[in-house]
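Input record (one chain):
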Amino acid sequence: MEKILLCRTDGIGDLLLVTPLIKEVKRNNKFVAVLASYNSKDVLVNNPDVDKIFVNPSKNLRKEINSYGFDKAYIIYPRFSVALLIASARIPERIGTAYRWYSFLFNKKIRIHRKYNEMHEADYNMKLAEDITGAKKAERLYFYLKDEELKFAKNYLEKKGIKDNFFIVYPCGAGSAINLPLVKYAELIDMIHLTLPDINILIASGKNEQNKVNEIFERIKNRKNIYVMDENLSIRQLAAIINFAKIFISGSTGPMHIAAALNIKTLTFFPDKGVYPVRWRPIGNISEIIIFETNKVNFIDFDNTINKLKILLNREK
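The corresponding structure, as predicted from the sequence alone:
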């Protein structure tokens, strides 16, 4: 069996966007290993298509990779340190971009310019391994929850008093895309509460970002049916809770892609510059996108947002 190493060492959402490629490589009867960052690796836990996860950086990583005798490595997220690592691990076929100064470390160079945002990031990933995937496009993402994680989420929601009919508003993010200010998220939650009073709202936080959700909650704490996630949960615990939401509302961020992978409806705010929906939008789920002007973010009109939420509620999965 041919052994393949896929290398993507950046964010949670970025790694999730490799899961269509992972599935396609496994479908072709390959041994599939992934080199991921420490912060992102958990999104691949319980994935039946992944045979091995390496964490970058980690002790004796080159030696461990070398011991597996890989036939090919695809450097999906080009970084000199990763390219050097793969070359020093003596993997015979090393596939990467043709447009980096260190591309001499790859012995098969792919001519792809991602900066032009001509296709979805998941499709760029597929195209890099076109010798395996052919012309196939990414149709959806994959995230596999465990039974005990689902049980945790059910217990968590029950203890909070949150019923089935709830939205998650996630105002956090790693900073890769411009997001709405916290005060605008507070205004949006208030408007949802007034126009859709039967909907419960959970304001969710990322790891070590509880201060953001608490700041929002302080502005609207007198409203009913609004709850705050002030616990420091893991990404998989957050994912399990997302799994039970009606709609996930956020900026362009990793948990948005988790929601898409779990087939949860999403409403996503994209800035008009820097991060483009054609490349980073959710795929495989029912979704709505709102593009806001970054220089007029304080004047955003949420009437359109409420209309899109009503449309999402009425659309069948």
